[in-house]
Amino acid sequence: MELLNSILYDTVYHSAPIILCVIGGIFAYKANVLNIALEGMMLNGAFISVLVEYLTGSVALAVIAAIVTTLLWGLVFSFLGITCNGNVIVIGLGINLIVPAIAKFVLKVMELANISLQDVGVADFKINIPGIKSIPLIGGIVSGHPVITYLAFIGIAAAAILMYKTKFGIYVRVVGENEDSAISLGLKTQKYKYIAVLIGAFCCALAGINLSMERMAMFTSDMTAGRGFIAIAAIYCGQGKPVQSSLYAILFGVARSLAVNLSVYAGPAAGMFDTIPYIIMVAVLAVVSFMKFKEGKRIQVRLRGRKMAKTALIIVDMVRDFTDPEGLVFYPENQKILPRIKKVLDESRKHELLIVFLQHCNRKDKVDKKAQSMRPNCIEGTFGIEIDPMLEVDEKKDYVIRKRRYSGFFGTDLDLVLRENEVENVVVVGTKTNCCIRATVTDAFYLNYNPYVIRECVATNSETVNEVHLTDIDKYLGKVIDMNTFSKMLEEGQL
Question: What percent of the chain has pLDDT over 70?
């Protein structure tokens, strides 16, 4: 039992600095910047924190100095790699080599083999959580760790929220996935890349402080021992997702804990156990790479064997400026059709129809010709262009196409998307029937698609106007059907 407790406690102990590097690294990873300098940045945090505390006796000053200097390395990396468009791998490796060289030089000048903090007690940084410590097994594992260790595990949830629940996280991912699109949205891509790298530098500084001052009260030139590279491996294995990547970091922490605790019983062969974390790292990377390769093959086979849906559901302009009571041009009719469109959307997904969201977007501080006499609406960078949250967009399968005019075809790649997917029929729902719906249906008709409009799923600000245009569409441009007919046509394979 004692051995098990020791292994579990040390797992938390060894996982924390890797998790911190992972949390920092995923933001750069998502911004399409490979921050390979995690190792050097962590070592800098370890070295500067111990050095400053050794010289001044101030823990606070040591922490501040470690964070500031590591952020400076982050700025150096960003300037050379992002602003100057240098090779980030070469730059990162350079930082990984320069930082330990500086540390060794300073130690040599000080005539020290390492720096040991005599006035700092490691126990002083440990926190015993009230009520937790007394719990059998769990208390001895969870309680009694330094502050930054707890911050590391809290940081997993914080990073997940920041990445997937905030505009900043969304913008970072947009920058990484499609920088051209990000630029077209008016995003300052370099700014988001800089911030992503600096978040990584900050987290690496904390990892270094945790590793050196909080846990060992000393610095040795090789104390990071490849943890930064292990963090990069964890990010790769977890595909840059905070929780998954952190789980791989914990796996490596388990490996390190096993190596330390089992080496006690190994006698002369104890040194062999130090290789366990790295062997596991290589093995995990090999397995993950093989699984990704196999998954890629399976996807290719599915795509080759899949009969593409001949029908696409086109959802027109169901954005928050039109559907939300706080929107700039809100019509109650648009809110009424939302649940019906959601039902049609779910049914379309069930039958594997191609889903296309049209997203009206006007340029910020510029007025499109068509909108000069209209109220401002759907301005890029505002919540007004967001697809209504009731209509959940599948980022992997659905297409979201921005348009500047009424028609979804004018000045967009909608026609290209439909033809690439061998679409013949287009089912149109959304708002406004007299403008965007009619214009999109008209162009679909001109381009030789078979347009269908679902009566209950389109609206404008006047029922009379709505019916007049539906009558015209049904007579001249396509077919107006109800939801029951749509469902029946899907079941019978007519769509």
Answer: 87
Residue spans in the chain of domains classed CATH 1.10.3470:
2-296
Residue 60: CB atoms within 10 A of its CB come to 10
Assess contact for 70 and 48: CB atoms under 8 A: yes
The bridge status of strand 399-403 relative to strand 354-360 is parallel
Within the chain, all domains assigned CATH 3.40.50.850 are found at: 307-491
Cα 458 to the center of its chain, rounded Å: 34
Tell me the C-alpha distance between 31 and 28, whole Å: 5
| CATH number given to 2-296 | 1.10.3470
Task: Please tell me the distance from the alpha carbon of residue 202 to that of residue 42, in angstroms, as a whole number.
Answer: 9
Sequence-separated (6 or more) residues with CB below 8 Å from residue 399: 354, 355, 356, 357, 417
Coil, strand or helix: which one is 255?
helix
For the domain spanning 307-491, the CATH number is 3.40.50.850
Alpha carbon of residue 150 to chain centroid: 23
DSSP of 335-359: HHHHHHHHHHHHHHHHTT-EEEEEE
In angstroms, rounded to a whole number, what is the distance separating the alpha carbons of residues 157 and 185? 28
**Average pLDDT value for residue range 175-203:** 87
Structure confidence at residue 179 (pLDDT): 81
**Which residue, 23, 12, 43, 11, is CA-closest to 225?**
43
DSSP per-residue letters across 9-36: HHHHHHHHHHHHHHHHHHHHHHTT---T
Confidence band for 393, pLDDT divided at 50, 70 and 90: very high
Q: Nearest-CA neighbor of 246 among 159, 162, 169? A: 159
**Residues 219, 51: contact at Cβ < 8 Å?**
yes
| Cβ-based neighbours of 414, under 8 Å, separated by 6 or more | 314, 356, 358, 401, 403, 408
Residue 264 has pLDDT above 70, yes or no: no
